[in-house]
Amino acid sequence: MIDNTDVRPVRAAWQRCSLVAALVMAGTAASLGAQNAPMTIRASTLIDGRGNSRTNVDIVVAQGKILSVTPTSNVVPAGQYIDLRGRTVMPGLIDAHAHITWYFNRNGRFHTNDDGDTPVQSMLAAAANAYATLNAGFTTIQSPGASEDADLRDWIATQGLPGPRILTSLQPLQSGSPDTLRARVNQRKQQGADFIKIFASASIREGGAQTMSDEQLAAACGEARRLGLRTLVHAHSAESMKAATLAGCTQIEHGIFATQEVLDLMAKKGTYFDPQCALVFRNYLDNRVKYNGIGNYNAEGFASMEKALPLAVATVQKANATPKLKVLYGTDAVAGAHGRNAEDFLCRVQQAHEAPMHVITSATSLNAEAMGLGTSIGSITAGYEADIIAVDGNPLTDITAIRRVSFVMKSGRVVRNDPVAIAPAKR
């Protein structure tokens, strides 16, 4: 049976709150302008997103694109000049897994569909999450997913709402016969999904055992591949990870109970792996009172997440030690975590002992490649989208600098500009 999610009430909610969004944007637009004229960003330290670090470069941006990246000249550039010397300039960060519409309601509880919040209130909360995420330096996210994501994605892309570029699966697939799953994949494509999200295992709070058969996974991932859609698979157990890999699915999420055997298989098949290190578990535990008693957010569930913390770090370590395995950066940010998406950088470097450049590359060019956007975002390269951030300090020597974002540009538009970041041209 095909689910026919009616998104009309959600669209109506967006239309009713569009005036509010326009008012929020008015001040930003007035202060920053269209910024279509060429501008030069001068950097003393640049991390390019492809594993390289350079010093003393000028990045010329126009019409939302990077025109050139050249050694700094001895003259002050003509036109608009952004002086970011003394900071570290990087590509906009990418989160491969974030639930952007999840939030805490005004009663301090995790929002559910029956808590009394109106669609307008829910959409305003989602817009606030998007704004916080963008200001944290994440210019692109992947949300697997909810039907509300589509309108948030489109309002950001076309209506001036501030937020990261969003790719969404819309509603995930959790059950059904092989034929039903194929039909649902087609339905998601018609509804505008950017990829397909599939649940192959139970939640970590319920043990993570495989819940979708090999035949079901083969049907869903095979149909998505036929239609040109990627597949992201929620899988904690080694068995579910193996089944998804053999089914030709594109990307596996979580993998708390991954074995070396399945990691080697994923590397051989070219399957992307998106493990989480700490943020999602710590966020749930820190906000326990706001989730407790809702579904499987109970004593057993929280105990399972506490046990998952060291397992998650060990999984990241094993994954990074597996030759040729493509390890992505995705946080599974939920209510309470939006705007803190950089926390897993600290976990992966300080606890899993990953090299800072390696995890930065995962969160930029490798994530872009996995999303099918590797020729347009994820690197500071001529011809790419001008998604550029700056942090105070150097994350290659102090990974906590990744928290200190002070400049954000998305597609050539400055959306965060802390004091004195933009310097007037001197003659």
Describe it.
The chain is an alpha/beta fold and 427 residues long. The chain has 2 domains: 90 residues, Roll (Urease, subunit C, domain 1), CATH 2.30.40.10; 278 residues, TIM Barrel (Alpha-Beta Barrel). Helix content is 37%, strand content 19%. It has 12 helices and 15 strands. The strands form 3 sheets. Strands 1, 2, 3, 4, 5, 13, 14 and 15 form an 8-stranded mixed β-sheet that branches.
Label this structure with key terms:
four-stranded parallel beta sheet, Urease, subunit C, domain 1, 12 helices, TIM Barrel, alpha/beta, 19% strand, disordered C terminus, globular, 2 domains, disordered N terminus, 427 residues, 37% helix, eight-stranded mixed beta sheet
CATH class descriptor name of the largest domain: Alpha Beta
| SSE order | HEEEEEEHEHEHEHEHEHEHHHHHEEE
Which outline best applies? globular
Fourth-tier CATH superfamily name of the largest domain: Metal-dependent hydrolases
Radius of gyration: 21 Å
Number of strands: 15
Figure out the total of helices: 12
What composes the largest sheet?
A: 8 strands, mixed
Mean pLDDT score, rounded?
91
CATH architecture descriptor of the largest domain: Alpha-Beta Barrel
Low-confidence stretches: 1-16, 18-34, 421-427
Question: What is the SS-derived class?
Answer: alpha/beta
Q: Beta-sheet strand percentage?
A: 15-25%
Q: N-to-C terminal Cα separation, in Å? A: 69 Å
Overall tally of domains = 2
Query: What share of the residues lie within helices?
Result: 25-40%
